[in-house]
Write a structure and sequence with these properties.
The protein has seven helices and five strands. The protein has helices spanning 14-25, 32-40, 44-69, 88-94, 106-114, 129-147, 161-172; strands at residues 4-7, 29-31, 75-77, 98-103, 152-155.
Length: 173
C-alpha cells in the first residue's frame, strides 16, 4: 500500500496538514516525531540532550522504516531534518511511496516559528527574529537538495490548511 509522506522545514505545517488530510480521506495518519517520542518514552528535546543528534538520527531512521513498511498509517508527517539523513528520501521513493514537500518561504517560516522558538531544540539558542530568519535561510539552503527529491512540491504561503489539503487531495486522487 502506498503511503503519503509529508516533508518540509519545521513550521511548514506537516503535522497539521496530515491531520486535515486524514479527516478528508479517512486515511490513518501519524507524526514521526510523536511516534518516536512514544516508542522512546522521552521527548525529542530529552533525547537530543541526553544522547545527542547522532543517536537521534539513528533511531529516527529505525522508526521511519517501521512506519514505511507497516500496514498502518497511510499519511505520515516527517520531522524537518528526516529527509536529510541516511538517504531517507531515496529510501521512501524507492519503496514507491508518495512524497510531498510542503514548501514555505523564509518570511512565512520565520513568522510561524518565532512564536514557538522555546519549543524547538534547534532554535533554543536564537535570540531575535533577524537571527531566526538568517538561521532558517541557511538551513533551507542546506536542506533544499533533500527536500527537492520529493515527488511533489506544494507551496504553502498565503494558503489555508483547507486550501493546501484540498490541493493535495486533488493532486493524488
Amino acid at each position: 500500500m502506498k503511503k503519503i509522506f509529508l516533508l518540509g522545514y519545521m513550521g511548514s505545517g506537516k503535522s497539521t496538514i496530515a491531520q486535515k488530510l486524514s479527516q478528508l480521506t479517512g486515511m490513518d495518519q501519524i507524526d514521526l516525531d510523536d511516534y518516536l517520542e512514544k516508542m522512546e518514552q522521552k521527548s525529542i528535546n530529552s533525547i537530543f540532550q541526553e544522547k545527542g543528534a547522532i543517536y537521534f538520527r539513528k533511531i529516527e531512521r529505525t522508526y521511519l522504516t517501521d512506519l514505511a513498511e507497516s500496514s498502518t498509517y497511510q499519511i505520515i508527517s516527517l520531522g524537518g531534518g528526516t529527509p536529510c539523513y541516511y538517504n531517507n528520501m531515496e529510501y521512501l521513493n524507492q519503496l514507491g511511496h508518495i512524497t510531498i514537500y510542503l514548501q514555505a518561504s523564509i518570511p512565512s517560516l520565520t513568522s510561524r516559528l518565532y512564536k514557538e522558538m522555546n519549543k524547538r531544540p534547534l532554535l533554543s539558542s536564537i535570540s531575535d527574529k533577524n537571527e531566526l530568519m538568517e538561521f532558517i535561510g541557511k538551513h533551507l539552503f542546506e536542506r533544499r537538495q533533500y527536500y527537492s527529491k520529493a515527488q511533489h512540491q506544494i507551496n504553502t504561503d498565503n494558503k489555508t490548511i483547507d486550501d493546501i489539503s484540498r490541493e493535495i487531495v486533488a493532486l493524488l486522487f
